[in-house]
Amino acid sequence: MAQTIQLTGITWDHSRALPPLVATAQRYEEAHPGVRIHWQKRTLDEFGHMPIDILAQKFDLIVIDHPWAGFAFAKNLMLDLKPLVPAATLAELAENSIGQSFTSYDYDGKLLALPIDAATPAPSWRPDLLERAGVQPPQTWAEAVALAQRKLAIIPGFNADLFLHFVMLVKALGAEPCATPEEIAPRDIMSRAIELLRELTAPMPREIFELNPILVAERMTTTDDFAWNAFAYTYNNYARDGFSPKPLRFGNLLSLQPGGPRLRSVLGGTGIAISANCKHVTAALDYALFTASGATQRTLYTQAGGQPSHRAAWTDGAADLLCGGFFSATRTTQEEAFVRPRYEGYVPLQTAGGHALQDHLRNGGGAAAALDKMNALYRQSRETL
Hints:
About 45% of the residues lie in helices and about 10% in strands. By secondary structure, it is α/β, with parallel strands linked by helices. Helix 8 (about 160-170) packs across helix 9 (about 185-200) and helix 8 packs across helix 16. The protein starts with a strand and ends with a helix.
């Protein structure tokens, strides 16, 4: 009797992350009796920022986001999937992944992961609370600030989220983030970006600096404290009927100026990578391809709570209805999201740079000192190359 193949995987701790993978693993096992797949979870912060070298020693399948590409390949932690997947399959995934979900994992000629999940910062709101306040969801920065001044608006101000809000604004102001080795962006643009963040967050409670996107969504759907969230990595679960006591509605990003272009947020989402230490690569890859396929993404993966990356789900009416109109409401913002840096030393910069921003926005430190600190941290992150 053939020995059972055992695969282990690690994802993050949320209904958007673990249940759809458990569901796909269960179905795959039913169709492949000789394979067993066990998924574990870790916190959202650990998912985004804890070094992945230890995970690569313990797990076969690692749910990962694209900024880890440079580090993962520099340390030989993950397999390059490009030579392992048929060219026609890669072409289909590239063509049908929403926005840059597929290309974000294509780094230096290698493929870090197969995309399975798509997310990017977008607004969310409580329709009942906005109606009570007599306002519509803000469409411009000035309208957002006005709502914040009425104590109705919130954003996640957790360190990494704050840094990525800053990067979004740098991009909107006309600079390419991290394009040179000396500074994140030209000084005048960095100054304007930090001033915009200060303007928006000044009326908000200081507790926002401890809140990540999940905590913001939980707060908005279980209390009446806040009516509108300007931008946070999306979780469609909170728009689904029955998931939360007070569901959210989602939409596309606002503009800095009336009639101007929308903000473009920093792409998130996840893919399945395979550890270089995996002993059963063929089975691991076959399961990853099953999970990333359009048929699975549109049905089982979405139905189990996932937020798929395949366009088959984003354009499916039944999936959109199940998720409270989330896909149709945020599709433009997801399509327009841009890929953040992926060089080897980048990931810790999100945390450290976010702390520098928090020191200024929460504690009142000088903007010039914050920018100096952020640029120093950026140069340090480049020194790992």
